[in-house]
Design goal:
Blueprint: H1 2-5, H2 13-34, H3 45-48, H4 59-66, H5 70-82, E1 86-91, E2 94-102, H6 104-128, H7 130-153
Antiparallel strand pairs: 1-2
Length: about 160
């Protein structure tokens, strides 16, 4: 029975991924706030990270891409709408549906966020080594390719 509960000295892979994500996200949050967007919270990433910045997206698309419920993403969407980052407009292809799109203020925040993400990736490459970060990126792209491709086809 004891052998069943023995653990290895290696940190579980899922824990490594989670801690790395948390570290990256915490630093990104600090920089987003320092850039003048202190009202953007980490939870808003489910929208900013999944919205089509040019054409907007339906709520169902955002929820699917974020792997979250429509209700959860809807709360974040409503919050960002109240803060002036998003607007809801009629879907020209379906009068019953709404498209959620970035306002001018939302576009600014989106672009700054993307720049800060790229900056952080470059800093990680300097800190941990170009080859390591490139290998990490390659591995993550390989692991996520099928799912990201499927989500891209839905646009």
């Amino acid at each position: 029975m004891q052998a069943e509960f023995e653990t290895t000295s290696r940190t579980p892979f899922i824990r490594l991924l989670g801690v790395a994500f948390d570290e990256f996200a915490e630093e990104l949050g600090k920089r987003v706030a320092a850039a003048g967007y202190a009202d953007i919270r980490p939870g808003h990433g489910c929208v900013f990270g999944n919205i089509d910045p040019e054409n907007g997206s339906r709520l169902t698309e955002l929820a699917e891409r974020a792997n979250m419920t429509k209700q959860s993403v809807g709360e974040m969407t409503s919050d960002l709408e109240q803060r002036g980052y998003l607007e809801r407009v009629a879907d020209p292809n379906d009068g019953r549906a709404k498209i959620i799109r970035l306002t001018a203020h939302g576009h600014e925040a989106y672009l700054i966020g993307r720049q800060l993400i790229d900056e952080l990736e470059r800093e990680w490459a300097e800190r941990y080594g170009d080859e390591r970060v490139a290998a990490l990126r390659d591995a993550l792209e390989a692991v996520t390719a099928e799912r990201l491709d499927a989500l891209a086809l839905q646009r």
